[in-house]
Each structure stands twice: as C-alpha cells, then as structure tokens.
Amino acid sequence: MKNIKLLSALSLMMLITSATSGVVSADPLTDRSTAGSIEFDNDTATIVTPTDPENPGSVLPVIPTDPSYPGEVITGPSGGLFLAIVPKNFNFGSHKIGAADIFSGGILTFDQEASFDDRAYSQAVEVHDGRIDKHDWTLSAQLSAFDSGKLAGSTITIDNAKTVSQFPNQDPLLIQGAQTEITQTSSVDFLKSNPKAKGDTSAVWSDASDVKIHVPADKITKGVHNATVDWTLIAGAN
C-alpha cells in the first residue's frame, strides 16, 4: 500500500508542475528582458597618503617630509596593498668599549637613541590594504650584514609594540608576540593580517629604548658600523 500511495503523490506533483509551467511560459513576441551589469575592481588609480599610525584613519600629524618625524612615509594606491610607514632609522649611538667588555664572552645590549622619546611621535610600521578581493599578507624583516664586515651574529629586538587598526576587529597579529627578534641569518615574520586587516593597520612603539641591538662581545671592533633592517610585505594567496 505504501508504494501505491507514493506513486500517486508523484503523479499529482507532475500534473501540478506541468500546469504551472504552461502558465509562466514566455511569449517570444511579447515578452523580453533587458540585461544589466555592474563591475567592481580594486582602485589602483587613486593615490593616498598614509594616516596616523597611532590612530589609523586619522590625518598624519606631520607633513610627510618633516625631518623630525621618525618614520619614512610612502604613498600608494587606495585599492592596493603597500607598506605605508617604516622607521626611518635605528640609531644606537656611540659607545666607549674596553678590553674587559670585549673579552667578557657575553652579548652586549644597547638601547636605541632617538629624538622621539619625548613622546611627540612614535615609531611604527603601517600597512595599507584597500583590496576588495584578497585579504592575506605578511610583513617580514631581516637585519643586513654591516658594511664594515664586522659584528656578525648581531640581532635587533623590538619590545612593547601594540597593534591598532582603522576599522574595528581588524588589528594585525604580532607574530612573535611581545618581543620581535630580527636576525641576520634569515628574514623573520613580524606582522600579519588576522585574518583580515583592512584600511590602515599598524604596529606602534612609543619609546626609543623599545628597540635594542645585541652584539656578541667578541665580534666588536673599533669604528662605525652601518646596516639596514629590510622590511618585505608579501601578499598571500587568498
């Protein structure tokens, strides 16, 4: 009996579908459609200036060419991905070193010396992501070799960085956490979208002493030693 009832129900449904199809069928002489379309793409034509890394989305508090501002300011496309602000330099000063220091066998640590420690400005890295189709990115850093060929094995650490974002719940992720160590041996991941970080997002630190250099004592030699921290912003696959 169950089979008979099921077949009857199917027959009824087929009749209803057939009847409905006859009602809505279009007349090719009286029924027509007008096609409409719209397209969106990333805005690569509008160039924007980075915003305040401490308050992303707010106007940068200085003229980008202000020599006292501790960041290098980069413009880029509104709908693109670019590295908007990086520290202009890390200055670790001049130090008097004796033989006892060199032969201590340890690691000597020196704080950054900078004019922004009066808290008028902060150091920061800022990433702008205005893309509408992709969201993933990673910012990495590496300490280069010194131009003197000396001080091998040195590292730089950044402490107490805080992340801020232009839009709610868009803060990037400090990959190493409270302290980032930047080495000469390979690039290290510093900042990452989490999972999205749209508009302007930053990692900011307020005190010059939050940046330190660590030098193996037995590698120290007299003279001026210059190197760079090389920042690389990599777009992800999504």
Output the strand order for the largest sheet: 2-4-6-13-9
Q: Helical amount among residues, as a percent range? A: 10-25%
- The dominant shape is elongated
Any low-confidence stretches, pLDDT <50, length ≥5? 1-21
- Main sheet characteristics: 5 strands, antiparallel
Tally of DSSP helical segments: 2
Structural class: mainly beta
Q: Gap between N and C termini, in Å?
A: 56 Å
Return the string of H and E elements: HEEEEHEEEEEEEEEEE
Which quaternary structure do these chains form? single chain
Provide the residue-averaged pLDDT.
88
Explain what you see.
- This protein is mostly beta strands.
- The protein has one domain.
- Helix content is 11%, strand content 31%.
- The protein is built from two helices and 15 strands.
- The N terminus is likely disordered.
Feature tags:
four-stranded antiparallel β-sheet; single chain; 15 strands; 2 helices; 238 residues; 11% helix; mainly beta
In short:
The chain is mainly beta. 11% of the residues lie in helices and 31% in strands. Residues 32-234 form the WxL domain.
Spell out the blueprint of helices and strands.
Layout: H1 2-24, E1 47-48, E2 71-73, E3 76-77, E4 81-87, H2 99-102, E5 107-111, E6 123-129, E7 137-143, E8 155-159, E9 162-165, E10 173-174, E11 179-182, E12 188-192, E13 199-205, E14 211-216, E15 229-235
Antiparallel strand pairs: 1-3, 2-4, 4-6, 5-14, 6-13, 7-12, 7-15, 8-11, 8-14, 9-13, 10-12
Signal peptide: 1-21
Domain WxL: 32-234
Organism: Pseudolactococcus laudensis
